[in-house]
Amino acid sequence: MQQLLSILVFTLLIIIVSILSLGRSSFSLGPVWSSVKKAKRAPLSLTEFLSLRPSQRNRGVYYLFSEEQVRSFAHRFIGRLDGAVLHWDDVPILDALIEHKFPVNRLPSKMKPEDLFQAGLYSLALAESGVSCRLARLVTVYCLQDTAKQCLQDKLGRNCWNCGDARVFKRKFNPDEIRMHLKRLDEVWYNKRLPRASPSETKCTVCPFSTSGECNYSAV
Question: How do residues 116-170 score in pLDDT, each as one tens digit?
């Protein structure tokens, strides 16, 4: 009985350690990690990639694009994505939309809604450009500012996906969810609806008006 109990405790310990390790490692990304790992830095711009003729398309080759501007005419916004992994099939396909965030004090335990929304906006713009985003994953990499700064200063050349100091989260791209949030914001930006206050710890800690103790600026 004592031996069985010891085995159970040991097994539970292994499971806990594995879960914690996966939560901090890139391998929790599953198939997305495979695409990112195989991706090579794109030798051309995103615009050029999307306009390739059929004879120029290298199917099955994954490309990593960085710091590319995307635009949505339908929803009237422009942004610059941190990274995106795409490949060609019959149409250009988005595998992963990657955003890097550098909090000051602590790493989040899950992807922040505003970061999910930002990555979703960029994916929505790519979909509008003819990119298939049906299987796309929105990925956010969090690394503390001091850690990232030290990494750059020491020229360690570490990959954020493999770095134990970063936290990586992914979500499947849901265009309807992003459009729903955009519709609510458009009511404020374009239709003159007054924003409704929605105070919360995560919003108020970064809000310049939070010292008053009242929230009148959070649009929901």
Answer: 999 999 999 999 999 999 999 999 999 998 888 888 776 666 667 667 788 999 9
Q: Record the tokens describing residue 68, joined without a space.
A: 């590319």
Asked if pLDDT for residue 34 goes beyond 70, the answer is: yes
User: Phi then psi for 99, rounded to 5 degrees?
Assistant: -125, 140
Taken in order 65, 111, 141, 102, the sign of the CA dihedral is positive
Contacts of 30 (CB under 8 A, 6+ apart): none
Tokens for 47?
A: 């615009």
Per the model's pLDDT, the better-predicted residue between 6 and 42 turns out to be 42
Q: Give every CB contact of residue 211 below 8 A, 6+ residues apart in sequence.
A: none
CB atoms within 10 A of CB 64: 18
For residues 117-150, one letter each, b for 16 or more C-beta atoms within 10 angstroms of the residue's C-beta and e for the rest, the string is: ebbbbbbbbbbbbebebeebbbbbbbbbeeebee
